Structure to design on (788 residues):
């Protein structure tokens, strides 16, 4: 396709067989309108192994490593400062609660049944597409001798798959439906990143009968529950608890504080050796994927260092007094949720060559939809998901606090955000702005003497991680041209920001039919949901509504690419609002002469806007008023879509969440949960270590149990339907429970599950039951969509 291709709106309307002048037909025929949306999610999870340092893989591996032995020898020879080894010894010996995040586990090979051992051996092949072939070159990492026995050591992400494998192969009495369903789901447990990733067992169809976004929330909650059951099963079945190890999995948005400390001590190469997962599951050639993940870590680490140069160029760092970030970046250990949505109509058009709708049309209109939706993304931040974080004054070095923002915003908006953030955090001594100098003792003294507390941020994951990349002047990412992403990756690679072989990072990413098998978008801006069924379902609803609204604007001709320019300054102008919302900065600034006509329309509806006295030619805009204006625009421009999608309740819920005084946003409720048990009245009254440590404990214990409870409640609802007379699954249920009703069984063991006192046999039955309900969900989806 030649550069400069422009999609034809009339041809798009013809392909959809709708007439723009017929209001009802127009709304019904829009992509992502009623009955047209399918959705799936990908969840990144945190793992820990609890146990003594002599029993848990992470501390044992560190102490047995050549790295550890070499630095001791170099310290003895006087070539390495004693502080390095003392810091490492403190890490190994100072874990009071014996919590080792992202540690691998060690289990006796004999505890695996024949089927689990077969799958493990198959996954050790260099190319799993070949039933007989060479083994991976790093097999000695996984097969070891310990305690006079044959052991395997694996990351918890792979343990999930292996445990599921064992659960469906552990008895000759396993019903064939259960075994078949389990085999189908094994590939949904990935281990490519530091954290485990799971993705939807099946898409959810957004219909009124499925309660729209509740469908994807239910699937996610059930997948989370199954994950919990298989890790509990592994703890019992594979003798993990018996050998001093207890694995846990849960939602937690930030890289653990404990691992941040370790990352400051060790080299980037040793960090990757300890924490980059080996990609045993999900890819035929796992070693290739493993090398790709190493590349991602190396690129982000390098990019972090290059960001410091940009801060100096922007004038934020005015001299050479900087605290250099570590050469190892830990941001890949953050955890979020991605919600992908596809349009059945777009998929059908792209599948049918005679429709006239081609890949270049998908790209042209898809890029425009992304640009439109980006203006609305501040509505999601803190309202539906959040990652509360406390930064002490000593952490307010711009080269650390601003993270990857130098690669995401232009210098003008970067300077504006930094100035407003310092003001929000009240970093002043006698009226003069100040940031830490570097020497820790000096900065701690300043903090104590002048009561410099630092700041509290409601969604720090969005600042601490590279969530989107700014275009270059020559290579805009969203101008609708085929191949523009590759051109941008090439430019960014030459600038030392990114790698041309990595997938481009965006808030809202096009998922094209030729690659994914569906046509739609992936929302990548979600951190932690306080409630899966409460927060995630409503967030998915709003994502669906805004995507449909974007196509309404496009197909009605109200918004074109010309309305939203593609230069880096225009991108930065709209994206600064998103990042400011994450930090909690109350205002932002927009040029009065902005060429972004779509943004200007929103600003014209925004209350309390005035000309800036500090920045000539700019308007000062209140973030809260901007978000209220977005809500007003949704009500004005999408009443027909709201009605068609049945989302009046979602819009009302959004209005309630946006008002800070209501205290029902995800950020407010998560923060309240973290603060429970503390005498402090606000996060700012606690130190960073106190608040962030309390947050991790809250995620690991209280919130994990609440998410398990949500999954159990959905499972019980499913069981009541399964137990109904004449159920087609009666035979398989009898093979699991005999004459006991499945709902009665779940009721009886619910407390045991929540307290983790369940036997391996009971856990196996629960896993089998979940596989039956998931199989039923998959079959229902096929019937509704006519697929499969």
């Amino acid at each position: 396709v030649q550069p400069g291709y422009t999609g034809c709106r009339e041809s798009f309307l013809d392909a959809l067989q709708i007439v723009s002048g017929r209001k009802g037909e127009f709304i019904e025929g829009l992509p992502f309108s009623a009955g047209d949306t399918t959705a799936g999610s990908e969840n990144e999870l945190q793992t820990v192994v609890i146990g003594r340092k002599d029993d848990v893989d992470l501390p044992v591996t560190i102490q047995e490593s050549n790295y550890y032995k070499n630095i001791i020898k170099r310290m003895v020879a006087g070539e390495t400062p004693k502080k390095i080894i003392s810091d490492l010894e403190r890490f190994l010996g100072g874990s009071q609660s014996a919590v080792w995040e992202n540690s691998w586990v060690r289990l006796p090979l004999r505890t695996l049944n024949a089927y689990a051992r077969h799958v493990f051996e198959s996954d050790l092949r260099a190319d799993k597409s070949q039933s007989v072939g060479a083994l991976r070159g790093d097999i000695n990492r996984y097969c070891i001798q310990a305690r006079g026995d044959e052991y395997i050591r694996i990351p918890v992400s792979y343990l999930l798959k292996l445990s599921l494998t064992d659960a469906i192969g552990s008895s000759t009495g396993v019903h064939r439906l259960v075994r078949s369903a389990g085999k189908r789901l094994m590939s949904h447990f990935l281990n490519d990143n530091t954290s485990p990733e799971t993705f939807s067992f099946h898409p959810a169809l957004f219909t009124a009968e499925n309660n729209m976004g509740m469908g994807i929330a239910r699937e996610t909650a059930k997948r989370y529950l199954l994950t919990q059951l298989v890790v509990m099963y592994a703890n019992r079945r594979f003798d993990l608890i018996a050998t001093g190890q207890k694995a846990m999995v849960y939602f937690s948005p930030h890289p653990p504080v404990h691992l941040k400390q370790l990352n400051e001590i060790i080299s980037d190469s040793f960090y990757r050796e300890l924490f980059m997962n080996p990609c045993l599951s999900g890819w035929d050639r796992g070693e290739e994927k493993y090398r790709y993940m190493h590349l991602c870590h190396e690129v982000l680490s390098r990019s972090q260092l290059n960001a410091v140069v940009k801060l100096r160029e922007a004038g934020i760092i005015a001299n050479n007094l900087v605290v250099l970030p570590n050469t190892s970046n830990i941001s890949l250990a953050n955890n979020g949720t991605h919600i992908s949505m596809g349009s059945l109509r777009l998929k059908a058009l792209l599948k049918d060559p005679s429709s006239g709708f081609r890949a270049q049309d998908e790209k042209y209109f898809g890029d425009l939809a992304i640009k439109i939706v980006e203006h609305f993304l501040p509505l999601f931040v803190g309202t539906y998901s959040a990652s509360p974080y406390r930064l002490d004054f000593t952490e307010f070095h711009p080269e650390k606090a601003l993270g990857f923002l130098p690669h995401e915003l232009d210098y003008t908006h970067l300077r504006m955000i930094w100035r407003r953030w310092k003001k929000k955090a009240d970093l002043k001594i006698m009226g003069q702005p100040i940031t830490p100098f570097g020497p820790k003792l000096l900065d701690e003294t300043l903090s104590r003497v002048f009561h410099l507390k630092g700041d509290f941020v409601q969604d720090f994951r969005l600042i601490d991680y590279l969530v989107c990349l700014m275009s270059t002047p020559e290579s805009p990412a969203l101008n609708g041209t085929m191949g523009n992403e590759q051109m941008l990756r090439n430019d960014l690679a030459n600038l030392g920001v990114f790698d041309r072989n990595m997938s481009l990072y965006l808030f809202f990413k096009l998922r094209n039919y030729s690659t994914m098998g569906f046509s739609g978008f992936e929302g990548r801006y979600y951190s932690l949901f306080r409630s899966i069924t409460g927060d995630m379902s409503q967030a998915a609803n709003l994502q669906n509504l805004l995507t449909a609204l974007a196509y309404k604007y496009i197909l009605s001709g109200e918004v074109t690419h010309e309305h939203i320019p593609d230069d880096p300054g225009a991108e930065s102008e709209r994206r600064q609002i998103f990042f400011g919302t994450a930090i909690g900065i109350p205002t932002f600034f927009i040029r009065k002469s902005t060429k972004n006509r779509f943004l200007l329309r929103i600003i014209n509806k925004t209350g309390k806007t005035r000309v800036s006295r500090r920045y000539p030619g700019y308007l000062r805009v209140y973030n809260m008023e901007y978000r209220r204006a977005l809500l007003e625009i949704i009500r004005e421009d999408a009443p027909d879509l709201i009605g068609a999608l049945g989302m009046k309740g979602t819009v009302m819920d959004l209005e309630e969440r946006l008002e800070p005084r209501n205290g029902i946003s995800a950020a407010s409720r998560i923060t309240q949960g973290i603060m429970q048990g503390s005498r402090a009245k606000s996060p700012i009254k606690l130190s960073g270590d106190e608040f962030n440590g309390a947050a991790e404990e809250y995620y690991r214990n209280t919130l994990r149990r609440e998410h398990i409870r949500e999954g159990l409640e959905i499972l019980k609802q499913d069981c009541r339907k399964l137990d109904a007379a004449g159920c087609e699954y009666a035979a398989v249920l009898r093979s699991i429970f005999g004459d006991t009703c499945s709902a009665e069984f779940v009721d009886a063991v619910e407390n045991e599950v929540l307290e983790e006192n369940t036997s391996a046999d009971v856990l196996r039955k629960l896993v089998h039951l979940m596989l039956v309900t998931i199989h039923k969900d998959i079959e229902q989806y096929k019937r509704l969509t006519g697929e499969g």
